[in-house]
């Protein structure tokens, strides 16, 4: 009856019985929801219930959906909602007798919603919300201003390749527009020899100059589209226009898709300084790494925020490929708000290498991965628990409904939970219900359910804690707070939280432990390490070398990241390749801690970070081991030679990494000890001292010192209170 934890995962598997118990642990209390999460091949698929004349059965009071934890009574004529405990009457045409012993319906095997923790319904017209579901419409809005000329060939080539590889779902429609200081639309009807171009010269006065042929079947109009994609790089190769009316282009996409929803995939290479939504270059490097840097994290003006909300209402998500020249400010905080509000993606590629396969891999994933649009999600909890704050990239029309103009397999949402005042006695139930349209045009309802035990002691709550999920919720929460609080304040709050968790564990679970001993709870013993890594990351560290665009981009990506992805951000795996090559079982990967002291000069290491893969070659590595790794010459090693399909060991390792980096293509780098600069690698070795932040052992010592101070302070307060009591009495 419980859903797969890939879909919904709590920070605490034993729910604290009341709010005071939450305070007594200091642990984050909430859940991470990834509604369309990609399943492992061995996981059971989510059952699909075909469309019928009946709507999914719901509780008449709380509107929760029927699930395995609902209880049938009165011989099957009624059921008790597990969420609000309301007794509902079963409609006559849905009635079925129940088994006297088990209390289950006799036709239970015909109702997956009564058997499985996750289920998906095809839903009738009443769930369409006034818009007929259609296969997804894509609008590729391509920046053709002067800065864009270098990447036009590749971007247009990727679209052509996706069509030839049948990446688009049957029935989907595709449109293409280009923009500089004006907007250019194209009639792509299959009956034409070449696409007809129509220009809107005034980027302030936006309208759509054509209806027929704007969106077409990419396979029926393949020849017309391919010719246009070949022509665009040549048409604008020597474009003297340096400005790009991005705000006007986004407005045009809204007008084109407002009646059915869809997805805008846009490139942008320059700050929008013409048309609607013009921006100023507000970049001030003197703010970098200072308390006032947070002013660069908020959008400039309100044009893009308003437009983003309109796009959400129309069900249009926005993916933006930001490809500025090196050291160029493009204001990710402002133009990227369209992606943040519509649950789209931002790809930030400054000084983009046009020879890279990164754009092809990432764009192909965007189109091929499971995704939907026009989604609305709500989380319901059983009596005694309610939702508080919601964290992620989305919009909220009410205090409880999450609006997702687009939803992808990688999209994760954090929900903070609170007690509503009553003490919990029975099990707790949580249900996530998401109404959405699939990319092939089916309106569906996906429901995930969780049943969790209640913990009545600090020890039981700690026993069921999940450090990785706690970190994901904390990351989303602290990124949300970054527009209000300085990076230093947020970093200090993380320290205080860590101290509180360890202090409370010591006080309430292991009070007999020696004061000289730092006690780490077994289930969250990695939390101090992960928090230390969080503080050293681009997200929080005070570093004047990190530009505002890079920091905001990282914040936006991490804010919607799943649990596995977040861990890779903060503590990537480092594989001991020299040991892995020598063992017979190649499915096991011997790991090493992320510290330079742990790296053997005679070894080879593979480090998988979010954006890069490093192959580190020790300067004393035996030649036979280097040859076994597929490197013919230590001094001449380069990524192109190493990553060859005939180099089976490392090629297989690389493919394994690609499967876990499905959302994007990381950069592959070889670092030879003593020959190559190791500064990029040093940033990843988070257990060492870096960016003026303590090493992990020193951080633990500092936490221990703070805990002893707190314990001493509490002992002193207890002594003073006792003395006051006896003085008053006598």
Automatic annotation (TrEMBL):
<protein>
    <submittedName>
        <fullName>COPII coat Sec23p-Sfb3p heterodimer component</fullName>
    </submittedName>
</protein>
<dbReference type="GO" id="GO:0000149">
    <property type="term" value="F:SNARE binding"/>
</dbReference>
<dbReference type="Pfam" id="PF08033">
    <property type="entry name" value="Sec23_BS"/>
</dbReference>
<keyword id="KW-0813">Transport</keyword>
<keyword id="KW-0653">Protein transport</keyword>
<dbReference type="GO" id="GO:0008270">
    <property type="term" value="F:zinc ion binding"/>
</dbReference>
<dbReference type="GO" id="GO:0006886">
    <property type="term" value="P:intracellular protein transport"/>
</dbReference>
<dbReference type="InterPro" id="IPR007123">
    <property type="entry name" value="Gelsolin-like_dom"/>
</dbReference>
<dbReference type="InterPro" id="IPR012990">
    <property type="entry name" value="Beta-sandwich_Sec23_24"/>
</dbReference>
<dbReference type="GO" id="GO:0090110">
    <property type="term" value="P:COPII-coated vesicle cargo loading"/>
</dbReference>
<feature type="domain" description="Sec23/Sec24 helical">
    <location>
        <begin position="466"/>
        <end position="567"/>
    </location>
</feature>
<dbReference type="Pfam" id="PF00626">
    <property type="entry name" value="Gelsolin"/>
</dbReference>
<dbReference type="InterPro" id="IPR036465">
    <property type="entry name" value="vWFA_dom_sf"/>
</dbReference>
<dbReference type="Pfam" id="PF04811">
    <property type="entry name" value="Sec23_trunk"/>
</dbReference>
<dbReference type="InterPro" id="IPR006895">
    <property type="entry name" value="Znf_Sec23_Sec24"/>
</dbReference>
<dbReference type="InterPro" id="IPR036180">
    <property type="entry name" value="Gelsolin-like_dom_sf"/>
</dbReference>
<feature type="domain" description="Sec23/Sec24 trunk">
    <location>
        <begin position="133"/>
        <end position="362"/>
    </location>
</feature>
<dbReference type="InterPro" id="IPR050550">
    <property type="entry name" value="SEC23_SEC24_subfamily"/>
</dbReference>
<dbReference type="InterPro" id="IPR006896">
    <property type="entry name" value="Sec23/24_trunk_dom"/>
</dbReference>
<dbReference type="Pfam" id="PF04815">
    <property type="entry name" value="Sec23_helical"/>
</dbReference>
<dbReference type="GO" id="GO:0030127">
    <property type="term" value="C:COPII vesicle coat"/>
</dbReference>
<dbReference type="InterPro" id="IPR029006">
    <property type="entry name" value="ADF-H/Gelsolin-like_dom_sf"/>
</dbReference>
<dbReference type="GO" id="GO:0070971">
    <property type="term" value="C:endoplasmic reticulum exit site"/>
</dbReference>
<feature type="domain" description="Zinc finger Sec23/Sec24-type">
    <location>
        <begin position="56"/>
        <end position="93"/>
    </location>
</feature>
<feature type="domain" description="Sec23/Sec24 beta-sandwich">
    <location>
        <begin position="372"/>
        <end position="454"/>
    </location>
</feature>
<comment type="similarity">
    <text>Belongs to the SEC23/SEC24 family. SEC24 subfamily.</text>
</comment>
<dbReference type="InterPro" id="IPR036175">
    <property type="entry name" value="Sec23/24_helical_dom_sf"/>
</dbReference>
<feature type="domain" description="Gelsolin-like">
    <location>
        <begin position="591"/>
        <end position="635"/>
    </location>
</feature>
<dbReference type="InterPro" id="IPR036174">
    <property type="entry name" value="Znf_Sec23_Sec24_sf"/>
</dbReference>
<dbReference type="Pfam" id="PF04810">
    <property type="entry name" value="zf-Sec23_Sec24"/>
</dbReference>
<dbReference type="InterPro" id="IPR006900">
    <property type="entry name" value="Sec23/24_helical_dom"/>
</dbReference>
